[in-house]
Amino acid sequence: MELNIFNNENEVLAALAAHFVKVANEAIAAKGKFSVALSGGSSPKKLYELLASDYEDKLEWDKVYFFFGDERNVPQTDKDSNYLMAKNALFAPLLIDPDHIFPVDTSLEPKEAAAKYQEVIEDFFDEDELSFDLVLLGLGDNSHTASLFPFTPVLHDRLPGVSEVFLPDQNVYRITMNAPLINEAKQIAFLVYGEGKAVAVHHVLEDDEDIEEYPAQLIEPIVGEIEWFMDIAAAALLENI
Ligand SMILES: O=C1O[C@H](COP(=O)(O)O)[C@@H](O)[C@H](O)[C@H]1O
Predict the structure, then answer these.
(1) For the chain, where are the E strands, in sequence order?
(2) 91, 108, 221, 241: most buried, per Cβ within 10 A?
């Protein structure tokens, strides 16, 4: 695991954007395409805007295939949709071919949407190339990542796949890649900034293992690499750096 800690949010975003483009260019040079699972929530929008504005001509975007690590169970036009956020920040400005974008079909019931998304992913990958070149992740202040929330059944999935998750406190469903699927990725990158994340960062990276309380501890690539990109505010409570 590599921890990259920067002075401020802008430096974190610049470093992760450069990492994204490097990993993508390497994949494209090796096999002609690059697959990425995007994160949602509040943190990555600025990353996507930066990629669209500063890296338009530094990557062959027509060779990139976009998936979503998780999605809110809302229409694709809803303000909370991860797809809508990525569309506005990244896909539209870069004129990404819709055939290269794989949103979760949230018009289905959550369980069906999860099963269908798992099929979409399985159909995309050849048998000899099982998983994503890059999975982007965030970290919630309750230590969730993707939509692997504390004390939810998905934390006990043992086979790679996609599951629906019910959040009783919000009375909503989400759809999420499970940890075994995420952990098959060749590269995993966490984007975390702001003092509000400091406690969660400490729990996930330095506390004893407790995957029910701190689900992001489940993220551990099988053969790939994992890097954290964070600012000093988010890293403030780490003791071993
Ligand atoms: O990986 C992810 O993490 C977030 C938590 O991030 P935040 O920036 O909203 O605090 C999660 O909710 C999001 O959907 C996911 O992709």
Answers:
(1) 2-6, 34-38, 64-68, 70-72, 134-137, 162-167, 172-177, 187-192, 225-231
(2) 91
The total number of structural domains that make up the chain = 1
Q: Residue 37 sits in which domain range? A: 13-192
For the segment 46-58, the average pLDDT, to the nearest whole number, is 97
Is there a domain that residue 179 lies in? yes
Counting ligand 1 atoms within 8 A of each CB, the residue from 43, 48, 137, 170 with the most, and so the one to mutate, is: 43
ipTM rounded to 2 decimals: 0.95
Run of H or E residues at 42: none
Query: Is 170 a pocket residue for ligand 1 (Cβ < 6 Å)?
Result: no
- The answer to whether residue 84 is domain-embedded is yes
Helix axes 45-54, 9-31, angle to 10 degrees: 60
Start-to-end CA span in the chain (Å): 13
Q: Does the CB atom of residue 176 touch ligand 1 within 6 A?
A: no
Residue showing tokens 């921890």? 3
Q: What is the CATH number of the domain that holds 69?
A: 3.40.50.1360
Tell whether 201 is covered by a domain.
Answer: no
